[in-house]
TrEMBL record:
Keyword Nucleotide-binding applies: yes
Keyword Chaperone: no
Keywords assigned: Antibiotic resistance, ATP-binding, Nucleotide-binding, Transport
Single GO molecular function: ATP binding
Subcellular location as annotated: Cell membrane
InterPro entries: AAA+_ATPase (IPR003593), ABC_transporter-like_ATP-bd (IPR003439), ABC_transporter_ATP-binding (IPR050763)
Family, as annotated: Belongs to the ABC transporter superfamily.
Name the UniProt record assigns to this protein: ATP-binding cassette domain-containing protein
SMART domains cross-referenced by the UniProt entry: AAA
Domain ABC transporter per the UniProt entry, residue ranges: 2-220
Pfam families assigned: ABC_tran
């Protein structure tokens, strides 16, 4: 469980958080989206105890696993030693620790890298190692700040599956990303941050309700009818009823999270 209420954090003249509220239940993945500088990383730093807010409250129940946006790894040790260190910090010992390392390495496609030094790994492998440090001990709360930046499609899929598995087992997850299709894949609820606050919160379906989609009908002779509408399917039916010419192509575009993001950019 994680509950943030009215967090305020200033850095000199910059107000990074300005009444930031977020409530995430066990088993829920909350996708945290928002433009650069919206306050996402500052929120993670407060939630993980690295920074204190000037006011507001943060309650985090249980052990926390963090994958920060900036890679924070020791280059001179191996992946196995790294995971031993983080698993050990979380209280895992001996057989349980070894088992947890083998399992997370398998999940994140790191088995072949376990005995390589972190400093010689590729950027994507380092990113996976960073995620593995957060996941290795199966913490109750996971804070993942853009964990798939620079990841290839296979890595991305492996990481998303590992996160989904943790949530299914009851973990509370906050997942920041600029890549919105990931949130649909994760079955995440969404929190949109802007200027240090969460300005929209709900399931993707709830937030997309009422946003317009688009219907395009191409007629014989290449004439095109394009309509922006709250209900693309009904509008299409109506358009087709009124046509007396053959139709060559139909294209329906339902509103997407990208549309939501654009729409909210204009909200104060
Ligand atoms: N240590 C710091 N000192 C001064 N300003 C800071 C510090 N950390 C963050 N800020 C400022 O606070 C604001 C919020 O930054 P933050 O990193 O939380 O945004 P973000 O939503 O994570 O952005 P991004 O999507 O680029 O990662 C920015 O204006 C940033 O410059």
């Amino acid at each position: 469980m994680l509950k943030a209420t009215g967090l305020v954090k200033r850095f000199h003249e910059v107000t990074a958080l300005d009444g930031f509220c977020l409530d995430v239940a066990p088993g829920e993945i909350a996708g945290l989206v928002g433009h650069n500088g919206a306050g996402k990383t500052t929120f993670f730093e407060i939630a993980s105890g690295l920074l204190s807010p000037e006011s507001g409250n943060i309650a985090v129940k249980g052990q926390v696993g963090v994958a920060p946006q900036q890679l924070a790894l020791y280059p001179s040790v191996t992946v196995r030693e790294t995971l031993r260190f983080f698993g050990g910090l979380a209280g895992l010992r001996r057989a349980a620790l070894k088992q947890a390392i083998d399992r997370v390495a398998e999940e994140l496609l790191l088995t072949g890298e376990l005995d390589r030094r972190v400093g010689i790994l590729s950027g994507g492998q380092q990113r996976r190692t960073q995620a593995a440090t957060a996941l290795v001990a199966d913490p109750a709360v996971l804070l993942l700040d853009e964990p798939t930046v620079g990841a290839d499609p296979e890595t991305r899929a492996a990481l998303l599956a590992a996160v989904r598995r943790r949530a299914k087992n009851g973990a509370t997850v906050v997942y920041a990303t600029h890549y919105l299709p990931e949130l649909a894949e994760l079955g995440a609820t969404i929190a949109v941050a802007k200027n240090g606050r969460v300005i929209a919160r709900g399931t993707g379906e709830e937030l997309l309700k009422g946003l317009p989609g688009e219907v395009r009908v191409t007629l014989d002779g290449d004439e095109e009818l394009a309509v922006t509408t709250a209900d693309p399917t009904a509008t299409l039916a109506e358009l087709l009823r009124g046509l007396d010419r053959p139709v060559r192509a139909i294209d329906i575009r339902q509103p997407s999270l990208d549309d939501l993001y654009k729409e909210l950019s204009h909200v104060a």
